[in-house]
Amino acid sequence: MSLEIDAAVFDVFGTLTDWRSSVTEELAEIGGRAGLHADWAAVTDAWRRRYRPVLGRVVAGELPWQPLDALHRIMLDEVLPGFGLDALGEPERAELVRAWHRLRPWPDAGPGLELLHDSPVITGTLSNGGVGLLARLTKQAGLRFDCVLSAELARSYKPAPQVYLTAAELLEVEPGRLLMVACHPDDLEAAAKAGLRTAFIPRPLEWGPAAAPADPPAGVDLVAEDVVTLAGLLRGRG
Amino acid sequence: MSLEIDAAVFDVFGTLTDWRSSVTEELAEIGGRAGLHADWAAVTDAWRRRYRPVLGRVVAGELPWQPLDALHRIMLDEVLPGFGLDALGEPERAELVRAWHRLRPWPDAGPGLELLHDSPVITGTLSNGGVGLLARLTKQAGLRFDCVLSAELARSYKPAPQVYLTAAELLEVEPGRLLMVACHPDDLEAAAKAGLRTAFIPRPLEWGPAAAPADPPAGVDLVAEDVVTLAGLLRGRG
Predict the structure, then answer these.
(1) By CB atoms within 10 Å of each CB, which of A156, A227, B68, B176 scores lowest?
(2) How far, in Å, CA of B128 to CA of B131, rounded?
């Protein structure tokens, strides 16, 4: 199998970072400090489940484009009452939105990205998180990239095709020589439709140990166990 | 003196990299391979002297915005006849444009940026080079940044104010908490006018040993001998 690429861009929430345990921990800490109690993992899951529908409304033009932080705040405000957490104050809510800037990486993500940094492949994020969020997140998580690319630069959100095509244009690479790496089949399907190559990394624990793991999408170019394995495959082929 | 900043963005051509010796070397190699002879440093200087006027025409709206690679090519084509280098072929000209993707860093740039990466300050490029150019240049030169920002993201060129303001917006920092670092007084003057803080690093050899060095602009917030010194000053204050 031949896969000639010049650059690889990575999904971040889920593919490189464990948003579920990170956000649950911050909810427990910040909520606990405010004297509140809840099933914090369930709050995290409910928050995250609002993500795709709300971003979908932006992609469909039903909501104006706005930074992910603003959308995260809207989703949080919608979710809290259902858990009896209306009492959570303004500064706590703002701090929780910033929990998404401080996600913990999966253990293979940092070492795998270092390996790729030492290869000829140009690496970047390609996330729905904004540029500022991604710069902070990758810095504190020790995730080394050659550049930070965001859906923000296309003023849209994945899976809109212009997000993938803007990344290729900014990197000055042909879409067919740009690899999208993600654990979400719909992200990879949209990238493939825009002409990119695709690599699937399973993250069976993304939604916790009880959730059913995702299968790789049909037609994916590469499946790798983790980022270190992916780096080995790309370096071998590079 | 107090200088509270959240992020620092760096000029690249001149401030972090020695474009003159790098491009002169590539001209000598590529021109020599084509059997041509010239004062290659003079060709480099003439090429670079076209830079500000041509970018100024884009900022003034007299030329449509286009990637820096395209402008570098226009400038090169204008310069070559004056040196009797009309014979230089199409592939050689294209390769020379890419010489600006492979510039050598000044020796303090890499170590200084590593120090800043280990501080709370978010670092980025802020160059007239495009995102793809900057990703390649910083990767091969070992210049570590938390993100790559370019005038391209404002579809303009420095010293247009929207270039500086777009950087602050993407980083989600107040302009007054963003530091522009450069060896060019006009870059810093424009950044200050847009509300940024400014740091001057002298690069007396930018135009070769015979050129007069630039003075720091009036009102600059910080003057540092090199990037390592700057990192020490910012970490001390951070």
Answers:
(1) B176
(2) 9
